Amino acid sequence: MTHADLFSRHVSRLQAKTEKALAEAGFESLVISSGTPFTFFVDDRDAPFEPTPHFAHWCPLTGPHHLLHVVPGRKPRVIRYAPEDYWYEQGGVTEGFWLPEFDLEEAGTLDAAWERIGTPSRAAFVGSETERATKLGLEANPKALVSRLDWNRSYKDDYEIRCLEQATVLGARAHRAAREAFATGASEREIHHAFVGAAGTTEAELPYTTIVALEKNGAILHYESKQTVRDGRVLLLDAGVQVRRYASDITRTTTTAACDPRFAAMVPAMEALEQQLVQESRPGRPYLDVHLEAHRGIGRILSEHGLLKVSAEEAYETGLTHPFFPHGIGHHLGIQVHDVAGQQSDPSGTPAPPPEEHPYLRNTRMIEPGHVFTIEPGLYFIPMLLRPFRSGPRSAAFDWDTIDALAPLGGIRVEDNVVVMESGPRNLTREQLPD
Ligand code: GLY
Ligand code: MN
Ligand code: MN
């Protein structure tokens, strides 16, 4: 099916779901703004622009200040902000496949754009220009509506999956290029450039800052600086690409022949665990179960590889896996890399927080067809998390000599992106990056 066909169905589905959400939340129409740019203090420079995700869900038009007006029973209307200006380029229409789905209007000023909205009765607004919206009588970001829109975003349709597939193709290509650079001894900075070059994007277009971590830097979960030291023995590369705002979020850990074989042997073990967890991400299962299964698997690896001197079962039962795996097994993925509605228990937004002992689990939902999420187990040597155990009552359960020998190598993470189908999980990432 063409992009145009997929997109047409996407908008029809969005229209129907939004009409239902509006009725349930007590509104007659919805205005969404693409957002305002962030200008640095006492400067005339803006941060890279990121559109309101709810706007991007409807429309791939880039740039700030555009408005979308959704009225039940009517074709959605896009008011494109297009001032006459020769200093900066204005929000571009780069691809045309989506245009037939909207009534497109243009406005040369912000006031003119908002005048086209008028003062609709019982209208909701979603976006950052809350002051302007409130002045016109719109209710800004009402929770009852936003929760329902977020809930809808957690079920991806075929257009969205097509975007995710394209982001995966580019992400896989860029990962391969980065890994080749690593194999020749490249520094973090050079590996990053290899990634961006092969992805064919600019840095500002990436869905998140690349994590290019050699050796010990891999133990900093969101490590961002790019050092110039060459010849690392371990590369933890967590990097993705976005296509029409839909992101891939891929991690691979690679070792060279110079790496300590005890560390290197744990990489395929983590790969096998990650793929097992993907296979177990089936509809009807709580995502929390997959997270707990990851702790069990990491307990097994820690025990079998001699980092813990207790059985896998004891490691799991007594929480000894926690300092090595201190984040959640993954998160919803979509327009936002950490996509919405993972901690909602229903469309109206009733919170579903994670268990106290797993505070960083971002998804507590039952797995359902249409969900897209990451599966990303990790095993790290993080000094601040290991320290209390070294001097604590369970110290004898750890093999500190081995841990201290491997700690300079950082950590291991393996991350794939999964689309849940009626028939089971589809591993989008492995289709493009099998190793
Ligand atoms: N790249 C950030 C994450 O994996 O959650
Ligand atoms: Mn992730
Ligand atoms: Mn990631």
Would you give an account of this structure?
The protein has 435 residues and is of the alpha+beta class. It contains 13 helices and 16 strands. It has helices at residues 3-25, 53-58, 110-115, 130-135, 143-153, 158-183, 188-199, 261-279, 287-304, 312-317, 383-391, 400-406, 428-432; strands spanning 29-33, 67-70, 77-81, 103-107, 123-126, 139-140, 211-214, 234-239, 242-243, 246-247, 250-255, 372-375, 378-380, 411-413, 416-421, 424-427. A six-stranded mixed sheet has the order 4-3-2-1-5-6. It has a three-stranded antiparallel sheet with strand order 7-8-11, covered by helices on one side. A three-stranded antiparallel sheet has the order 12-15-16. A hairpin with a 6-residue loop joins strand 2 (67-70) and strand 3. The chain is globular. It starts with a helix and ends with a helix. Glycine (GLY) is lined by residues 208, 238, 249, 337, 376, 415.
